[in-house]
């Protein structure tokens, strides 16, 4: 009997493959970065073929490094960057255009025209989403108009669309599928019950023949091939829903915040979608095959860890991302400096594509330490913005913030987050909950894990940060952030 499950975690900047044991422990892990392509200001692209090849490579690397074979895996789950848009030729299996990344803003004018014809809430009742550059439907509509010959190919069935999960499933199983969580990020899916809506596709000019079949998140999608030959591919979740699943937030009222390339706060709202009146998204949290879907409210922040990468790659202030904590910690405070990372506009709760990044409050006293600290603190301020909106929408005031993701290794940021919110911040013993969520979904689908109770029992607290800042200082700092946000608006 196989004693492990595997998880592919295909993220914005890298792809990982992990092997998980029955206790939820990571016994093998391999990771490779892929290129970030910026053809023009506001454009962000990936090479889908590179992502496919790196995915296959990390699977082989992790298995061989642990002395395992594919046959040692009971199943493999997939988590992925969600809204990134891929089109490919079903005959050759090759991409027909660069993958347009979720951060890309080239569809701003299209989204503005969609909002002008019916308002910013035109699609919200059906999809839970505003017409924003974030989502894959407008990206696909842009590709259909701008890539020569793509529209006639799409109408004749010679071009397929998918988010990254669909692209990987096609390459792993030969089937054109997606799951409800990824489909709910397209602006094409009716939420309740989850299904493609022909009216939405028509509004965006998208041929329905391009769309993958929508399946529950927890179920068998097909039999693997290539490095995973013969292994069931049995659980698929968008990365933030995977993190919610990995935090074992299966019940209504449970929430988590993931600090990665962006920052994503999700609250499980149960079997009924909750509409947002405060700038959040209504999305599918997960669905187990044969059961009703579970829904969530989500606050999406575009730039979190990507701000640290900007310090490293664009400004050269640090040589590695790990150095930012020491540099930022060498200053006792931010020196009055605020950084608003509106590189792709502002996401929740503002939804302002006209915003652009700002560094505010500079004086002759300011130096690289203060800028590093401001970049870190921006993730905490944006989380407070989103949490306030979530509490207003749900009526639930969180008494603890459960966190995960790579940036939670930064103790300075986590302590500042607890101080700014005035509630404890708790990280689980295994902070890589996106990987765990994909593995847990796959394991549930094939009976490797018995059920939610078994998974919940695997969760353990790793570290807790308790607020130590006086309320007056907390509010003074947050007021400065709000002033800085105002400076970003209307820039474009």
Account of the protein in words:
This protein has helices at 48-65, 108-116, 124-127, 136-146, 150-155, 164-173, 180-183, 198-204, 239-246, 305-315, 323-329, 368-394, 411-421, 433-446, 452-458, 471-488, and strands at residues 4-10, 14-20, 26-33, 45-46, 73-80, 85-88, 99-100, 160-163, 177-179, 189-190, 195-196, 213-215, 218-223, 232-238, 255-259, 263-270, 281-286, 294-301, 338-340, 358-360, 401-404, 425-428, 461-465. Helix 9 crosses helix 14, helix 11 (323-329) packs across helix 12 (368-394) and helix 12 (368-394) packs across helix 13 (411-421). With 492 residues, it is of the alpha+beta class. The chain has 16 helices and 23 strands. A 7-stranded mixed β-sheet has the order 17-18-16-15-21-22-23. A 6-stranded mixed β-sheet has the order 3-2-1-5-14-13, with helices on both faces. A two-stranded antiparallel ribbon has the order 4-7. The model has no long low-confidence stretch (mean pLDDT 93).
């Amino acid at each position: 009997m196989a004693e492990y499950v595997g998880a592919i975690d295909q993220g914005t900047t890298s792809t990982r493959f992990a092997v998980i044991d029955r206790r939820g422990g990571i016994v093998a892990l391999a990771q490779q970065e892929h290129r970030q392509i910026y053809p023009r200001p506001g454009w962000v692209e990936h090479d889908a073929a590179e992502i496919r090849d790196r995915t296959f490579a990390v699977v082989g690397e992790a298995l061989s490094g642990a002395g395992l074979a594919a046959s040692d895996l009971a199943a493999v789950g997939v988590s992925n960057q969600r809204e990134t848009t891929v089109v490919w030729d079903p005959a050759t299996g090759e991409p027909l255009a660069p993958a347009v990344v979720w951060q890309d803003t080239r569809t701003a004018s299209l989204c503005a025209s969609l909002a002008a014809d019916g308002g910013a809430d035109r699609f919200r009742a059906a999809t839970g989403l505003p017409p924003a550059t974030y989502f894959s439907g407008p990206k696909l509509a842009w590709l259909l108009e701008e890539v020569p010959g793509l529209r006639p190919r799409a109408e004749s069935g010679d071009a397929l669309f998918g988010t990254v999960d669909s692209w990987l499933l096609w390459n792993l199983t030969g089937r054109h599928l997606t799951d409800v969580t990824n489909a709910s990020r397209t602006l094409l899916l009716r939420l309740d019950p989850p299904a493609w809506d022909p009216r939405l596709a028509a509004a965006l000019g998208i041929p329905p023949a391009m769309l993958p079949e929508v399946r529950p998140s927890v179920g068998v999608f097909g039999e693997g091939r290539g490095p995973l030959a013969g292994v069931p591919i049995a659980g698929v979740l968008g990365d933030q829903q995977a993190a919610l699943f990995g935090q074992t937030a299966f019940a209504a009222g449970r929430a988590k915040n993931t600090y990665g390339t962006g920052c994503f706060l999700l609250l499980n709202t149960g079997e009924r979608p909750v509409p947002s009146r405060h700038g959040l998204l209504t999305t599918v949290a997960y669905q187990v095959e044969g059961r009703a879907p579970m829904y969530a409210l989500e606050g999406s922040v575009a730039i979190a860890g990507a701000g640290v990468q900007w310090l490293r790659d664009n400004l050269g202030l640090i040589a590695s991302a790990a150095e930012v904590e020491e540099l930022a910690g060498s200053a006792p405070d931010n020196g009055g400096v605020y950084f608003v990372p509106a590189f792709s506009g502002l996401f929740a709760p503002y939804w302002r594509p006209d915003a652009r990044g700002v560094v505010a409050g500079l004086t002759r006293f300011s130096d690289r330490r203060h800028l590093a600290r401001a970049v870190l603190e921006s993730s905490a301020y944006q989380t407070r913005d989103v949490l306030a909106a979530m509490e207003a929408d749900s009526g639930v005031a969180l008494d603890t913030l459960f966190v995960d993701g790579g940036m939670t290794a930064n103790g300075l940021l986590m302590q500042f987050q607890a101080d700014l919110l005035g509630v404890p911040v708790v990280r689980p013993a295994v902070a890589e909950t996106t990987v765990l969520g994909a593995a847990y979904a796959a394991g549930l689908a094939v009976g490797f894990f018995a059920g939610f109770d078994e998974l919940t029992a695997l969760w353990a607290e790793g570290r807790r940060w308790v607020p130590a800042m006086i309320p007056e200082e907390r509010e003074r700092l947050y007021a400065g952030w709000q002033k800085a946000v105002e400076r970003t608006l209307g820039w474009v």
